[in-house]
Specification:
By secondary structure, the protein is an alpha/beta fold. Helix content is 29%, strand content 27%. The protein is built from four helices and five strands, in the order βαβαβααββ. A five-stranded mixed sheet has the order 3-2-1-5-4.
C-alpha cells in the first residue's frame, strides 16, 4: 500500500497539490492529511481526482511519528516535524517506511511524502 501524506497552507489550491504529487512521482492508494485539514476543498478535490480515499489522521497520531525532515512552518500541534511525512507514515500503519521524503510544490504552498507498507 502506498500512501501520500499531504501538507498545505491555507492559500494552496488543488494545482499546488497536483504539482507536489507530480514532483513526488508515482501513484498512490490513499491520500492522508491532518484531521483539521481534511475538510479543505483542495485536498477533497485532489483525492477525488485521484480516485482514492482521503484519510483524516488524528492529531495525536502525528506527533509520535519520526520524520527525517522538519518544516519551519509546521505548527506545534503537528509535532514540529513534517506534516506530510507524519501523515503518510501514520496512515500507512505499523511497519511503514517513507519511500519519498517531503517534496515541495513550485509555489511553496503544498508538500507531499509517500510511505509504503507491505501487506503480505
Amino acid at each position: 500500500m502506498r500512501v501520500a501524506g499531504i501538507g498545505f497552507r491555507a492559500a494552496a489550491g488543488v494545482g499546488s497539490l497536483r504539482d507536489a504529487m507530480a514532483r513526488a512521482g508515482g501513484s498512490v492508494d490513499i491520500v492522508a492529511t491532518a484531521e483539521d485539514k481534511a475538510a479543505a476543498a483542495p485536498v477533497q478535490e485532489f483525492a477525488q481526482e485521484l480516485g482514492v480515499d482521503l484519510v483524516a489522521v488524528p492529531l495525536a497520531m502525528l506527533a509520535p511519528q519520526r520524520t527525517p525532515t522538519r518544516s519551519g512552518r509546521v505548527p506545534a500541534r503537528y509535532g514540529g516535524g513534517s506534516l506530510c511525512e507524519a501523515a503518510a507514515l501514520a496512515a500507512a500503519g505499523r511497519g511503514a517506511v517513507l519511500t519519498v521524503t517531503r517534496v515541495i510544490s513550485a509555489d511553496g504552498l503544498a508538500t507531499v511524502a509517500i510511505a509504503e507498507r507491505n501487506e503480505g
